[in-house]
From TrEMBL:
Lineage, opening ranks: Bacteria, Bacillati, Actinomycetota, Actinomycetes, Streptosporangiales
The keyword Acetylation is annotated on this UniProt entry: no
Keyword Cell wall biogenesis/degradation: no
An example Gene Ontology molecular-function term: hydrolase activity
Name of the protein this chain belongs to: Putative hydrolase/coenzyme F420 biosynthesis associated uncharacterized protein
Keywords linked to the UniProt accession: Hydrolase
TM ranges: none
Length: 374
């Protein structure tokens, strides 16, 4: 397990395979960067006001990257999460000797190349992200996370969709700024997600024979996806214990993605005048792509992510309509108030468990349904 993934290979492979972005002049590129930085600050204000979340304004504007920059940032993030685990796992390792080590080295290179290929694929699609896991800054302080926007992908998407560029850029910023609000305004959330990820990875301690079974399952998942089936690699490589943890992770990620989607649309026409046109064109694009594109997305579990956005925003919308923003914000009280996977599908069950016990019915009826209460 020594060098489970050769990160250098991952970055090099990714940078080599990634497609170049759309053609823009140097002048245009400068304008895009300037406007995205500006709009990330504008979005921050709107998100704070609309969500009623307790967020300190972040003096840092968004970090604007190109595709290779996005790949590098993600590899840095993976290292922060995975390296401590690799150490833990390698302490458990029994098979040593020169053969074991040679296999490890080859395995590490291959995994680095696979990781690079996946990142190259993703790098031309991601519009922006809130990076949770960053290497500590040079002073050794753990950094709090960083909002990153991938300029070439934003430009390419707005051109393909033929939408108003300022509106589209602000709309993307609203989604990402909502993530910044979640992870900086809810003190326990980041630690919770990291803890679940760690547990998930540590729960995969399996012996050689089980490993062979998993590899067979993974190969079948690939074949199945090519045939148009539903399996994903994520399913193939799990132990039962991991499934339980993955359900918790999926629930929290569905919530934060859905909340981001809800906010970017609900902040509304006053802020993004063409929001409805953008949303309908954008949704058309989310479902699109070639057969190969769809296969890769399904394999990587990105199809699941598309469903998550939809289910997550439906949950947030229903809860918000029923108990207002203050009621919805109870979701951030503690890990116990997060919705389960079942509750995301049944928002009423979450309301009954978390919101109703503490509030008599009459008070709820008086709450403003449009969520203006802070």
């Amino acid at each position: 397990m020594g060098g489970m993934i050769d990160w250098g290979t991952a970055v090099q492979t990714g940078a080599r395979l990634v497609r170049p972005g759309p053609q823009v002049s140097a002048e245009e590129a400068k304008d895009v960067v300037r406007e995205l930085r500006e709009l990330s600050a504008v979005a921050q204000e709107h998100v704070r006001e609309f969500t009623g979340m307790n967020v300190l304004p972040d003096p840092q504007p968004a970090t604007i990257v190109d595709r290779p920059g996005w790949i590098k940032a993600n590899v840095d993030g993976f290292r922060v999460v995975l390296e401590p685990l690799v150490d833990k796992l390698s302490q458990r390792k029994t098979a040593t000797g020169p053969v074991g080590i040679a296999v490890d080295l080859v395995g590490a290179r291959v995994t680095g190349m696979q990781m690079g290929a996946i990142l190259a694929y993703m790098a031309s699609r991601v519009l922006g992200q809130y990076e949770l896991f960053l290497p500590p800054d040079p002073s050794g302080r753990a950094s709090t996370g960083r909002l990153t926007l991938v300029a070439p992908n934003i430009v390419q998407t707005e051109r393909e969709l033929g939408v108003d560029t300022r509106d589209f850029r602000l709309w993307v910023c609203l989604h990402e700024e909502t993530h910044r609000a979640q992870f900086t305004g809810v003190p326990w959330l980041r630690g919770y997600v990291q803890d679940q990820m760690t547990r998930f990875l540590l729960a995969s301690d399996i012996g050689p024979s089980e490993l062979l079974d998993r590899i067979k399952d993974a190969a079948e998942a690939v074949a199945d996806a090519v045939r148009g089936g539903e399996s994903t690699l994520i399913d193939a490589i799990q132990s039962p214990e991991q499934r339980v943890i993955l359900d918790r992770l999926t629930a929290v990620m569905t919530l934060v993605e859905g909340h981001g989607d809800f906010v970017m649309d609900a902040v509304g026409p006053g802020v993004v005048p063409t929001v409805e046109q953008i949303r309908s064109k954008f949704n058309g694009r989310r479902g699109g792509g070639s057969k190969l594109d769809k296969t890769i997305r399904r394999l990587l579990g990105i199809e699941i992510k598309m469903k998550q956005y939809a289910e997550g925003s439906r949950f947030v919308r229903r809860v918000h309509a029923e108990v207002g923003m203050a009621g919805f914000n109870r979701v951030w009280d503690s890990p116990e108030t997060l919705p389960t996977i079942a509750e995301i599908a049944d928002p009423q069950a979450w309301i009954t468990r978390v919101v109703r016990p503490s509030l008599p019915g009459e008070v709820l009826e008086l709450e403003k349904p449009n969520g203006t209460e802070s």
